Amino acid sequence: MTSASGYAAGAERPEASARATTGLKTATVDGHRVVVDADGVPLYFYTEDKPGEAKSVCLGGCATLWPAATSAQEPTLQGITAKVGSIPAANGGRQITLNGLPIYYYAKDTTAGEANGQGVAGVWYLIAPDGSMVTAGAPSGSGTPSPSATS
Known about the structure:
12 strands, mainly beta
């Protein structure tokens, strides 16, 4: 039986980390139009997650390196055409989803425009504004974001 958190009732929540944002917008990072947070930091999909699942599969050490993108309320959107939703986050908050998939930060992206997580282990990918995965041409991580036309 699962609780409202999406994790087993009575069980401890798995170790997880999260990072909150108030909004999502688009920026050009290393030549790709991608989804970024309100500060211009890129967000990623994890191919091990399945659309429509009630929880993320990135827990423990995975969640330390790939913190869940969370929001206390529905994030503001600028230029995003993907369907935005949320699922229970392992830390007790709400993890943002795009087209039914949870989204994440990469801990090694320390400033706006870095995309060091693109293509990591062949399972982490930047997100296009329509909610598709950007799998071609893994960025070098050295780009500077360009503001969205709708910013």
